[in-house]
What we know:
- The chain is mainly α.
- It has three helices and no strands.
- The model has no long low-confidence stretch (mean pLDDT 84).
Amino acid sequence: MSNNKIDEVNxxxxxxxxxxxxxxxxxxHMNSNLGHVIRYVWRAGKKGEGVEFxxxxxxxxxxxxxxxxxxxxxxxxxxxxxEEVKQEQAKATSDSSTLVELMEIxxxxxxxxxLR
Length: 116
């Protein structure tokens, strides 16, 4: 029995490059979605025999890429809503200050009015 068994957990060969760089050395600096995209593209055609395995990995990469695009779009929409609410609050505060100033002016006018 040979001792050349592949360590699929700690050192899978489909996650190494020709130069010895490991995929995890790159993907550990990314968010989960982008890490999965790189991981599946990296190993496409290296794990399993035949083009169907490469296509399967590339399709998996697309799932994570689409999810990342959706996440970014959702965050952008949420950020726009937050900014709109902040602007509305600032306007309401400004309108409120203007109303207070107007009431103070009216109070001064009324207090100086001889009919009082």
